Amino acid sequence: MAKDNHGAVRRVVTGHDAAGRSVIVQDGPSPFVLRTTATGPVVTDLWKTFRPPADNSDAAEPCADVTLAPPAGGSVFRVVQFPPDAGYMESWDEHAAFAAMGHDLAGSATRKGQTVGMHTTASVDYAIVLSGEIWAVMDEGETLLKTGDVLVQRGTSHGWSNRTAAPASVAFVLIDALALPARG
Fold first, then answer.
1. pLDDT in tens, 78-136
2. How many CB atoms lie within 10 A of CB 115?
3. Cα(102)–Cα(119) distance, rounded to whole angstroms?
4. Domain map of the chain by residue range?
5. Maximum CA extent, the chain
6. Residue 97: its H or E element
7. Which CATH superfamily is domain 22-176 in?
């Protein structure tokens, strides 16, 4: 999967100078962008934390790479740009796309023609639709989310489907959580 700055989101990060005054330490496109295919979703990681409480004294860059799940005990803040399904779904290799983010979809059924990329993470995810419309797809049922809508995803198997002709942009905050027991 290609990493590039196309579709990147502006990231402004604050910090402190040597005298302890607040300053802007970064302002520009996030360099942590993963394009899943030439026409597929674009994932932009903006920030990660590694434990609660977060350490605001650490000046090191926390986003070394784009991973699906948050760090153990931590969180990840990202924006995903979903193009219309019609432009990529038929040829999208969801297994390769998720593998590029360190997530194995082995055993996950593909749902070509309906949605692909059904996955589960051990996290609580807050999804905020920034622009466009997107369907949140569960094993049983689905719902249309529009600009301004919020979904709280609690460790469930889920996928995303953009059935419009325009891109959808969704902000996500993923917080590490206890894994749910396997269900048969």
1. 999 999 999 888 877 777 777 777 777 665 555 554 556 788 888 999 999 999 999 99
2. 21
3. 12
4. 22-176
5. 58
6. helix 94-99
7. Jelly Rolls (2.60.120.10)
